[in-house]
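PROTEIN DATA CARD
Card holder: Glycine/betaine ABC transporter
Chain length: 507
Origin: Aquimarina muelleri
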Amino acid sequence: MKFDIKKNSLLFISIAILLFFSFFLYFFTLESYDYIESFSIHIRQLFGRFYLWLGLSCVLLLILLAFSSWGKHRLGKASDKPQFSRLAWISMLYSAGMGAGILLRAIQEPVFMMHNPPIKNNISTKTIALEYTFYQWGFTAWAFYAVFAIAMGYYLFVKSKKVLSSSAFSSIEDLINSKRSKNIIFGSIDILAILTTVFGLVAAIGLGTTQIEGGLNHLFNENFGLKGTILILLIISLLAFTSVFRGVNKGIKIISTWNIYITIGLLIFVFLQNDVLSIITQFCTSLYHYIIDFIPLSLAYGEYNPGEAFLTDWTYYYWAFWLAWAPFTGIFIARISKGRTIREVIIGVLLVPSMGTFFWFTTFGQSAFEIIESFEVYQGQFDNVFSSIFVFFENYPFQGFINTLIILLLISFLVTSLDSAIFVLSMFTDNGKQEPSKKHRILWSIILTVFSIAIILLGNAKADINVLIAMQKLLIITSLPFSLLMVLMIILFFRDYKKNLHTSYSK
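Structure generated from the sequence above:
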């Protein structure tokens, strides 16, 4: 497995930065955590509200684009047809874009919001809990993905650019006279996208593996500890490498479709075991309030301002997380969306996954609310984010089978997120090829595994923190440069799209 340093400078610079950062996480873990904690406070104070405005702007721009005449045009030539069926397409984009997170938060987040309502008004705390959960998992999250996917899809399939984040900035090349300056600027953009992708991915892997370890601890009543978490990570990495080595059609597509089938089956099981009417009623009520309150929620305006403490622990972190996933999820969605219209991509990415996620959280959240009401005293049974879903299923038949299935599903979701990221990172560093070489896939599998272990160690730096707390602080820092770059990307995309509309989409 040989690499030419000159031809693969993007690869070697990115890996050097990641290994340098990993070195400090491995050998100066506590000091690294203290520095990240201090720096993240300054970022939140200066740029927290910027995250909110960016999220709202992305949603509104996509709605305008979908309903405009531009929405009828394809990502590709007019004759291009979609490569995947609509079910396979939805399955892959959902598995890559959300995945294990809906299992991690299915119970803990709605219950936390019910007991600690972010705002106070005349609406029931159950509705507020689900409304805020919808807000943090809904349109804004998918808007970050969709904006990046549509912009990259345009430059890849309409303008025939390479699979590189810098392709979205190709229209300003002529403004840079020096070739060296051009290489530095565009190379820096690609490196930033790679680093943002890696940080976002390892955050999810760290959280997911910790939840699996928490589930095993709960099921077997034994603490497997840090070594157990790392062993789980190694197994997931091996499975992901096997999947990505087989490619999109033979690996990623099959596992993604499996994930969706099992997830839907789990959802139906919980739905039918409870008061169906109350779940549907709560879903409609919470969705109504989410939609009519969306703009003030998005800006934390007036009575919808939950306070800086809540925004810091929840909304800023979530927005940073979705932004961190935007480069690889967006490009992966673009890669599997060739031939679909922009309107279909927006509906498929913004609306369909959001509605599915809303119904998921309503079903599990409302069911958890009813279980809590049956307790004489609630003693925090669902407070632990890593084990809450396993505790939840103790109240249902077949708990042993279902909890085992959840662990397998967690592994499967993490595998699809990891293999999608490996595939996209390989495209980045293999000169923007849509089918990257297998040696790049092997190398990124190894690098992501090493860096994920470093993040898990960071999450164990202090006795009073965990992986979730560590990642909240880290992602708020690492997502900021990409979020600023995303603003420029959006401006250039709309300018270039308008300028080249008639010539790019010739009939």
